[in-house]
Write a structure and sequence with these properties.
Elements lengths: L7 E6 L3 H12 L4 E4 L8 H4 L11 H4 L5 H6 L9 H14 L6 E2 L4 E7 L4 E6 L4 E9 L21 E4 L14 E5 L3 H10 L5 E6 L15 H9 L1 H10 L18 H12 L5 H4 L9 H18 L3 H7 L17 H4 L5 E5 L5 E4 L3 E4 L2 E4 L2 E4 L15 E2 L6 H4 L18 E2 L11 H21 L4 E4 L1 H17 L26 H14 L5 E4 L6
Parallel strand pairs: 1-2, 1-6, 2-3, 4-15, 6-16, 7-14, 8-9, 8-14, 9-10
Antiparallel strand pairs: 4-5, 5-6, 11-12, 12-13, 17-18
The structure holds flavin-adenine dinucleotide (FAD).
Flavin-adenine dinucleotide binds next to helix 1, helix 2 and helix 15.
């Protein structure tokens, strides 16, 4: 049988901030591009997560795109940390401004993607049975795009309203006078609680793992700040393009115990009152490697929690015991701990009284039943590999990605894996560890440059070498082993029953990404095996 020609050069999957940038870059580079998106609109994370209180903890202007000064100038973010509606509007604006919408097919979940050796193309199938052949497949399917719902008996029996935060409906949910359960106290759950507090009759917070929440300290961007942002665009872009975390925060070059106790205390107070991620990025540089330094910062936060929460028993339950700061994704939010001083809020510690089942009217724990009108499942995601492992990907010789990664992902730059030629996954496992759009933007640039190199040199097949993949994966594993902060949760897959415990972030950070990707170019792309095949076009 004659091999079929490709329908398109580049097939992008996912209309989040990463996929949209990939679409833009590939089209500008002269490739034909189609983008397939499972959802009905643009935005990825910011399309799906419509729950009350959903917002950035990256500064808005450091999260948005930097490739166009005109775009930066014309979009005025309203707050230092924008809420979901504003970000969704922004991404739609980008799509229309750069005329990207005509390349996007919505409601088009990819259900299978199979590598066809003879034609060196990917044959991609969508939910409606449609098929499209592409030379290059780029899955920008996100690390936090597959919600996780714990397997609690009786969930379907509940007669009230229930939603996962990451599948929140577009129509607002009315919390007025309602008895609400919020299950989960990671980044989403802790945003929901203070946001709905004024409306509800009562909210019961079900906590499995207490988290090191610190204040986001959000506020509107003043006209003077808007002007400064515009005037400082080039400097900001330079800072963000070179920053190791992808944030624009000042880096602290001191180790914790370089300073006296009084100096440390003063810094902790300053950080507590600083915006968002500065508690991590501008903290002592050894925070994540020196147990004593981390313990002292945690003790400071614990003291704050005890100072805020009036009931001492509740305060103790809200203080994490099983991980240090950074061992789990720290939430940044104002008003969460304060909410527990309101008689309308109660805390159920699931370590003491686990959930037995959901009933028709509420939730039963080992302590009895509570009735609710609304259940909010803030139970997180199948992080890192969730979307890729559900896409039906088969590489050389029919190898399934899920088999290849049965013990956890192996990658080069968090971008490619051997046995799956012409397949890239910017923003996937091992890819980022900071302000995501900056890391993911770097990866999209790497993909685009690699495709251009291959095309200019007449290569049809790009496959990462075994050695390059093994080296990057070793680097990730080694980085995970030397940190002392006791990682738990989604970063290592421990929130999903049966998932292999492998570290899923880029432990080398952006520094390693810059270093290795520059070496690839300097070494004339020898990290890849590139070849020609007789392709019919
Ligand atoms: C509530 C929340 C707040 C966050 N805040 C921040 C923050 O402040 N700073 C930060 O750096 N990061 C934050 N993140 C992480 C966030 O996921 C990234 O910043 C960023 O949005 C990732 O973009 P992406 O395009 O890579 O993936 P996503 O935005 O997740 O987009 C992936 C898209 O792929 C689609 N898709 C997946 N599988 C398929 C398939 N098989 N077929 C078709 N389409 C598919 C999905 O529907 C989705 O639309 C947050 C995450 C959440 C959930």
């Amino acid at each position: 049988m004659e091999p079929s020609p490709a329908d398109v050069d580049v097939l992008v999957v996912g209309a989040g901030i990463t996929g949209l940038y990939q679409l833009y870059r590939a089209r500008e580079a002269g490739f034909t591009v189609v983008l397939l998106e499972a959802g009905g609109g643009v935005g990825g994370t910011w399309y799906w997560n419509r729950y009350p209180g959903a917002r950035f903890d990256s500064e808005s202007y450091t999260y948005g795109y930097l490739f166009s000064k005109e775009l930066f100038d014309e979009w005025e973010w309203q707050e230092h940390f924008a809420g979901q509606p504003e970000t969704e509007r922004y991404l739609n604006h980008v799509v229309d401004r750069f005329d990207l919408r005509r390349h996007i097919r919505f409601d088009a979940p990819v259900t299978a993607a199979v590598w066809d050796e003879t034609s060196a193309t990917w044959v991609v199938t969508t939910g409606d049975g449609g098929e499209i052949r592409a030379r290059f497949l780029v899955a920008a399917t996100g690390v936090l795009s597959v919600p996780y719902l714990p397997d609690v008996p009786g969930r379907e029996d509940f007669r009230g309203t229930q939603h996962h935060t990451a599948r929140w409906p577009a129509e607002p949910v009315d919390f007025t006078g309602k008895r609400v359960a919020v299950i989960g106290t990671s980044s989403s759950g802790v945003q929901v609680v203070p946001t709905i507090l004024d409306d509800v009759e009562h909210v019961t917070v079900y906590q499995r793992t207490a988290n090191w929440c610190t204040p986001l300290n959000n506020r509107p961007i003043t006209p003077e700040e808007q002007a400064e942002l515009r005037a400082g665009f080039e400097a900001l872009r330079e800072t963000l393009n070179t920053s190791l975390s992808g944030f624009a925060h000042p880096v602290n070059e001191r180790a914790a115990f370089d300073d006296s106790e009084a100096e440390r205390r003063a810094l902790y107070e300053t950080l507590w009152n600083s915006p968002g991620f500065m508690k991590l990025t501008s903290n002592y540089y050894d925070l994540l490697f020196n147990e004593a330094a981390n313990d002292e910062w945690c003790a400071f936060i614990a003291e704050k929690i005890r100072g805020i929460v009036r009931d001492p028993e509740t305060a103790e339950r809200l203080i994490p015991r099983d991980h240090r700061f950074g061992g789990k994704r720290p939430p940044f939010v104002n008003g969460y701990f304060e909410a527990f001083n309101d008689p309308k809020v109660s805390l159920v510690d699931l370590r003491e009284t686990p959930i037995v089942r959901v009933t028709e009217t509420g939730i039963e724990t080992t302590d009895g039943v509570r009735d609710f009108d609304i259940i909010v499942w803030a139970t997180g995601f199948d992080f890192g590999t969730g979307a890729l492992s559900r896409m039906g990907i088969r590489g050389r010789d029919g190898l399934r990605l899920t088999e290849h990664w049965a013990d956890g992902p192996t990658t080069f730059l968090g971008l490619q894996t051997r046995g799956f030629p012409n397949f890239f996954f910017p923003g996937g496992p091992h890819a980022a560890a900071g302000n995501n759009p900056r890391y993911n933007g770097d990866l999209v640039d790497i993909v685009t440059d690699t495709l251009l190199y291959a095309t200019e040199h007449g290569y049809d097949v790009i496959e990462v070498s075994e050695e390059a993949e093994a080296r990057w994966t070793r680097m990730v594993d080694k980085g995970a082993a030397v940190t002392t902060f006791g990682t738990i949760g989604q970063y290592v897959g421990s929130n999903i029953p049966g998932k292999p415990r492998r570290y899923l972030l880029n432990t080398g950070g952006r520094l390693k990404l810059f270093e290795i990707s520059a070496a690839v170019v300097a070494d004339d792309y020898r990290a890849y095996e590139m070849s020609k095949v007789p392709v019919v076009r």
